[in-house]
Amino acid sequence: MNYISTRDKTQKVPSAVAIANGISKEGGLFVPESFPQITEERLLKLSKMSYTERAKNILGDFLTDFTDDELYHCVTGAYTDKFEDDSVTRIAKLGDDIYMLELWHGPTCAFKDMALQLLPYLLKTSAEKTVDGKEIVILVATSGDTGKAALEGFKDVEGTRIMVFYPEQGVSPMQKLQMATQEGENVTVCAIKGNFDDAQTAVKQIFTDKALAERLAANNMMFSSANSINWGRLVPQIVYYISAYCDLLADEEIAIGDKINVCVPTGNFGNILAAYYAKKMGLPIAKFICASNENNVLTDFIRTGTYNKKREFHATISPSMDILISSNLERLLFSLYEGNDVAVKKLMSNLNERGSYAVSDVVREHLQAEFYGGYCDDVSTKATIKNTFKNYSYLCDTHTAVAMNVYNGYVKETGDKTKTVIASTASPFKFAQSVLESVAGTTDGFTEFEMTDKLAELTGCAVPDSLALLKDKAPRFADVCNKAKIEEYVVSQLNLK
Ligand SMILES: *Cc1c(COP(=O)(O)O)cnc(C)c1O
């Protein structure tokens, strides 16, 4: 299995190279040349396996240049004793048709752990195969959850360093505290004056700066990415959609071949793209419901076929989705354009130069046949948290609430009662203030930890240990950097010769 670039199909590399480099040198994203198929027979077999076995089985189809031992080492390292239980994910059933796929029982309480516990293993193995001996410098732009999950995944991993940039005003107090208190000798955390898109754009520029790459090489270092542009971030996410289907089969909630819908609270389009890829492998999925907050660039795109990032940026209570440039959409376009790299390259340069692009009518129809797009604002998000708790005794975080809200709208609009897996992407305690305000009305005068305690008391849900323990940790990082100075900051931190 080889990987080709969305902007130049002649760039063809094995998975280890795609993962070690993160992004193709002309700026395109690596995608698999073809999609391995899962038959019904294989799904039934998978449904009898543990999560770790499922992961190894599915990854084996994509990472054909990894040995069986290497894959085993990677998945057991990532998923053994790092999550609250061996099942790794959990499914909560709400009413007759809704299955909350909880992806946040890992060390940082967000779904990013599902991929970022595994990525360091994939990256180290890839680097040993391809760029022997070089120190890998991971740069991360984060809207909150990726940063912490990447820091936890890479902390003290030999041969790697990690630097995380987050928008100073754009993350929740808990997220900021999680990152500022990060342990490990190879980690750097820095706030930037700017929003997530500024951070992501700066990091992408650093990755494609040839002169800087040469300077790093001279210092026996190389950059790589832990953002969802890296194939090593996406491939672990395909696993949990297939695994969820297997769990529903094993629990006799569905029969083999039954189609489900999948609803995902979306920002950078990584999570929902993984579900789309699972469908390309043959997983029976009918519709993808793409849920956005007020940064509704994807809703408009799905409804009109025009992507236009020139709009006001909103800082919302679902900050991990405060994104106007959804990087992974490029991979979807490559699929919808049936591998036409020239067309994708043109759209991406339109986006870069004019801030917008429009897809062809054929592609728009194909897009709309697969995807439904919807969004909601903060007021509706809070109302959804409250109502979901009232109706189902289920406490969801702000991001998951956006998905729930859009799902409810979808059912109202279409009458489609197909059983639906909703990706539940974060622990409600990570966004304690907004969640508590939603269920209790006010949080006046409460500290962050009084809020988590109050929330636990009101709802009977337990505060995850990793969040409760933050109370006694001292912050280690306080740097703030201007968005135009990120490259300079990186260079100074690396002490390059
Ligand atoms: C990152 C994140 C999202 C958005 O996921 P994408 O893959 O970027 O679309 C949604 N919810 C939470 C809690 C997140 O951390």
UniProtKB/TrEMBL annotation:
Residues recorded with modification N6-(pyridoxal phosphate)lysine: 112
Pathway it works in: Amino-acid biosynthesis; L-threonine biosynthesis; L-threonine from L-aspartate: step 5/5
GO molecular-function term, one example from the UniProt record: pyridoxal phosphate binding
Any one cellular-component term (Gene Ontology): cytoplasm
Keywords, comma-separated and alphabetical: Amino-acid biosynthesis, Pyridoxal phosphate, Threonine biosynthesis
Annotated protein name in UniProt: Threonine synthase
Catalytic activity: O-phospho-L-homoserine + H2O = L-threonine + phosphate
Function: Catalyzes the gamma-elimination of phosphate from L-phosphohomoserine and the beta-addition of water to produce L-threonine.
Superkingdom field: Bacteria
Record GO biological process: threonine biosynthetic process
Family: Belongs to the threonine synthase family.
Keyword Amino-acid biosynthesis belongs to the record: yes
